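Researcher: Next sequence.
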Amino acid sequence: MEANDEHYMQQALKEARKAGEDGEVPIGAVVVMNGQIIGRGHNQVERLTDCTAHAEMIALTSAFSTLGSKYLMDATLYVTLEPCVMCSGALYWSKIGRIVYGAQDEKNGYRRVTGEQSPFHPKTKIEHGVCADESLKLVKDFFASKR
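Model: Next structure:
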């Protein structure tokens, strides 16, 4: 774990809270390069009526736009919940250098489909567990409020 991982995960958690306030599943993401946030996103599936409007996808699109590039080899994605298979595919094609996620997602995370085999680019480094309890609590509280 790098020194700033918790700081940037807190930024992703801010994005997740925005999603929750909008009635979306509270998942947030930020893309960081050279100590700067170059992309932010939170779930907007309901708002946009688009099943692909996941936090990671929105943060990636923002980062691509900021850089004017489709590759993020020197960037890190911080996301509050383990990416799904769809987002993993986008992360693969972005060639992102590093992925840091908070909580594991036993139901919809990429590991449910891929097992321990990584769906990401071979050079992508993966870390998890940063602010995991806080990330998971947001999601659990959201779904508890819906019941």
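Model: Helices lie at 5-21, 45-48, 55-67, 85-94, 110-114, 132-146. The longest helix spans residues 5-21.
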